[in-house]
Structures are given as structure tokens and as C-alpha cells.
Amino acid sequence: MRCKGTTFSGTTKTFQGKNIKKRNFSAFPLLFTRIKVPLQKISPIYILMEQTKALVKIITEGIQEKKGSNIVIADLTKIEGTICKYFIICQGNSPAQVEAITESVGDFARNQLKEKPTHVVGLEHAQWVAMDYTDVLVHIFLPDVRDYYDLEHLWEDAKLTFIPDLD
After folding, report:
1. Could you tell me which of 86, 72, 88, 70 has the C-alpha nearest to residue 143?
2. In the chain, which residue ranges form alpha helices assigned H by DSSP?
3. pLDDT for 80 beyond 60
4. Closest CA to 51 of 135, 140, 160
5. Rounded Cα gap, residues 95 and 123, in angstroms
């Protein structure tokens, strides 16, 4: 790729009238590198979507680590005006298990992706805990509270993915 005002000579390059030594080219990675990846693969939106999908996967693993059950992932990416891109909904059988799942999800996201939730609400009663990772909202319920609020059907247009329980 060639940029206006850029000339190449030996081990130095001139960029807009300034000599740049070869070892400093990392400051301009897209100016001096030919990339064979389609443009949509390197766009910031594509990178953010891949990071969000990785976060969903890691959160699901954190839930499964503490035997969370009935995991449902609601994909809200195709729906305009939503507060996030994904809802992850699961349940624990007791307040202690709800707390353990919450802690596991936080640990998995922090250790594997260096992500921390912006807010965690509901730990005081541990009947419904909501963890906000900006693009992903995690809801951990007790079974009767989950049945009452029925978040899976809040958005009819959302694509729902049901994750089988690990036994």
C-alpha cells in the first residue's frame, strides 16, 4: 500500500517529509503493510463483534462451571433500539448457587478476557442477579423468579439459543 507523500529508500522511509527508520514502522502498520483480509474483517465493528461473541462464550463456560442450568442466549443484534447485543439467562437452584454462578462468571471473564462488569445488582437477596457487561447482560435467576419474569420472551424477534445442561 502506498500513501501520498511516502517514498521508500533502503532501510529508511520518508513519510510526509520525515525520515523514519525501519524499526519504527510498527507505528504505521496499515500504511506499509499489504493485507489480504477483506475490509469487513478488520473494521472496528467486526473486531467488537468478535470480542462480544468471545465474551458470550466465556460467560457460558462460567455458568456451566457452577452447574447453572437452562442457559438461553438471546441474540439481540438484529433488533434496533435494544440496550445490549446479547442476553444470557440461566438459573441456579438456591441463592447460594446463584451467588456461586455470579462469582464464576465474573472470574472467567476477568481471568480470560480481562473484562469486568460495569454493574452487578441483586446479590443481597440472590433471587435475580443481573450482571452488565455493556454489550452482554447476564441474568441469573432462581427457578420461580425466572418463570415469573419470563425474560426469554421479552423480545419476540430475538434469536434464542438453548445451551444443553452439563450433567
Report:
1. 70
2. 39-42, 44-65, 95-113, 143-149
3. yes
4. 135
5. 9
